[in-house]
């Protein structure tokens, strides 16, 4: 029964961790996110932020989520993202210190009971997603952690009564290393394995060197979480997962080979006799030494990883594929980046329906516009289909963002971006409706139709190149608004001139019959397309 109780306690502990992380993540506001991405100006600064944030939030998973979102959206440089991830490795050891100092010295169930009562009371009376509800959920997570740890601790102490524990003692340290890796992979929590090791050590179920080997294995096994999360998604997600694995692999194998044999000497130098303190001290020490070695090498380490992941086939279609929608600040940047790509796609579509290419095509390619590839840049139908697909993706992503708590400014900005995307599709739809007519003008034996097509082509090329220039360049808001007003006025003027051109040939041999109404219609649709785009 003791074995079952241990796994019951482990399940309660893991569920408590998930509730604690969920509550903290929902409570983290814009100030926390702003601080996280603005306090990483250097390698040392990014590492320090990783340590402090993880120690404060007690959730390396949450810190990793925020970092991944900001890095994917371009809000945090890649090298600083690595620094935060590596710092989180040390910050997460803070949990072990709390448990070692208080968890085995106090009556955990007595502490958990009032927390259960208070959290349950507030969960019952407040509505979901309100701040009091989220605070209560966070407290419930803490209570579950304490209660689960208490069950694990008690079951470990009574385990020798029902099991010959000598069968699991005295093995080579590598066995405990592998076991720590395996159990961490299964439960996806190195903190849970640390609690297991502390409980086993407290019950004298394992000796200190065996417990140390166990947590070294757990430290290495925890990289499986980021590795599994990087199987799909962006290149930067894979880069950060590989950085996490590389750091942990080098530090943990070095600790196993060089520090573990010196364990008695290290604890003697640190004047630590309590085995529980010795275990968490070793865990913190090996991560601290690893950081001290890696910090000077961080620029070269980041560059090396970037070079390993340069295959463009791994690139996602757009920024929204790289950023989770529950990080609002990063999500808005991702939507803006994607909308920029769609603007260029829509402009290119508008030119290619006239068999034209943007004068700025080379500049577009240099900026690695991810929405577009060569095929999409040379075929209106495929380009329009991609635009429609991306419209659906952006709107679906935006609705997920809207389900998060939004400030008034963010809510207005999100609606504005959604409107832009819809207008882009409308602008291309206007041209798609007259695509057949334009092709008929182009290959017609009628000189008037050919002349009108040539006028349209020249005007489209000049106007859309100006629009693309505004999109790609760095301009003040005043300049952009002034240029757009001029483009709108020119659009109205050109439509009048195009209609006059058709009128001048009405009733002549140049243009006759139903061709007149088709040409007026094309003038109108071209005007609407540009007006909507502008």
What does this structure look like?
- The protein has 24 helices and no strands.
- The protein is mainly α and 534 residues long.
- It has two domains: 2-312, no CATH class; 319-533, no CATH class.
- The longest helix has 32 residues, at 131-162.
Descriptive labels:
single chain, 534 residues, mainly alpha, 2 domains, 0% strand
Question: What order do the helices and strands come in, and which of them pair?
Answer:
Layout lengths: L1 H26 L2 H9 L4 H15 L2 H13 L5 H14 L2 H10 L4 H18 L5 H32 L10 H15 L2 H13 L5 H14 L1 H7 L5 H25 L3 H7 L5 H20 L3 H11 L19 H25 L8 H6 L13 H23 L5 H26 L1 H9 L3 H26 L4 H29 L9 H19 L1
* Low-pLDDT runs: 311-316, 368-376
Q: Beta-strand percentage?
A: under 5%
Helix percent band: over 70%
Alpha-beta classification: mainly alpha
Q: Quick one: biggest sheet?
A: none
Task: Report the strand count.
Answer: 0
Q: Write the element-wise H/E pattern from the N-terminal end onward.
A: HHHHHHHHHHHHHHHHHHHHHHHH
Radius of gyration: 31 Å
Number of domains: 2
Terminal Cα separation, in Å?
72 Å
Number of helices: 24
Oligomer: single chain
Shape field: elongated
Mean pLDDT over all positions: 83
């Amino acid at each position: 029964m003791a074995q079952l109780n241990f796994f019951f306690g482990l399940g309660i502990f893991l569920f408590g961790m998930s509730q604690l992380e969920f509550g903290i993540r929902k409570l983290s506001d814009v100030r926390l996110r702003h601080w996280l991405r603005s306090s990483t100006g250097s390698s040392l600064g990014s590492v320090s932020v990783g340590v402090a944030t993880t120690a404060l939030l007690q959730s390396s998973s949450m810190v990793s989520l925020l970092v991944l979102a900001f890095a994917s959206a371009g809000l945090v440089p890649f090298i600083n993202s690595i620094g935060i991830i590596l710092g989180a490795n040390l910050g997460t050891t803070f949990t072990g210190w709390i448990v070692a100092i208080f968890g085995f010295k106090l009556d955990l169930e007595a502490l958990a009971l009032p927390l259960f009562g208070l959290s349950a009371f507030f969960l019952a009376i407040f509505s979901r997603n309100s701040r009091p509800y989220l605070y209560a959920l966070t407290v419930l997570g803490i209570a579950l952690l304490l209660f689960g740890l208490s069950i694990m601790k008690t079951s470990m102490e009574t385990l020798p009564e029902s099991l010959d524990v000598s069968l699991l003692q005295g093995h080579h340290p590598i066995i405990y290393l592998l076991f720590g890796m395996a159990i961490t992979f299964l439960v996806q929590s190195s903190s849970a394995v640390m609690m297991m090791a502390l409980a086993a050590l407290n019950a004298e179920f394992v000796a200190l060197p065996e417990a140390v080997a166990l947590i070294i294995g757990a430290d290495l096994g925890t990289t499986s979480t980021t590795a599994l999360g990087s199987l799909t998604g962006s290149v930067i997600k894979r880069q950060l997962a590989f950085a996490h694995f590389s750091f942990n692999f080098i530090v943990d194998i070095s600790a196993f080979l060089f520090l573990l044999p010196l364990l008695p000497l290290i604890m003697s130098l640190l004047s630590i006799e309590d085995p529980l303190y010795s275990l968490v001290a070793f865990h913190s020490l090996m991560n601290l030494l690893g950081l001290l070695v890696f910090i000077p090498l961080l620029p070269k380490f980041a560059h090396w990883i970037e070079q390993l992941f340069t295959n463009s086939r791994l690139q996602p279609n757009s920024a929204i594929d790289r950023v989770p929608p529950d990080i609002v600040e990063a999500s808005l940047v991702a939507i803006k980046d994607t909308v920029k790509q769609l603007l260029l796609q829509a402009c290119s579509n508008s030119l290619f329906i006239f068999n034209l290419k943007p004068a700025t095509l080379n500049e577009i390619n240099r900026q690695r516009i991810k929405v577009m590839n060569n095929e999409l840049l040379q075929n209106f139908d495929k380009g329009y289909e991609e635009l429609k697909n991306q419209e659906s993706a952006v709107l679906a992503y935006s609705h997920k963002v809207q389900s998060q708590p939004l400030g008034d400014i963010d809510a207005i900005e999100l609606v504005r971006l959604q409107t832009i995307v819809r207008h882009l599709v409308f602008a291309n739809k206007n041209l798609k409706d007259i695509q057949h007519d334009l092709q008929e003008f182009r290959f017609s034996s009628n000189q008037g139709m050919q002349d009108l097509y040539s006028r349209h082509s020249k005007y489209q090329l000049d106007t859309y190149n100006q629009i693309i220039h505004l999109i790609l360049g760095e301009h003040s808001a005043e300049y952009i608004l002034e240029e757009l007003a001029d483009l709108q006025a020119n659009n109205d003027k050109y439509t009048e001139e195009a209609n006059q051109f058709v009128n001048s040939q009405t009733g002549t041999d140049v243009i006759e019959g139903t061709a007149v109404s088709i040409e007026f219609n094309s003038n109108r649709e071209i005007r609407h397309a540009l007006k909507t785009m502008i």
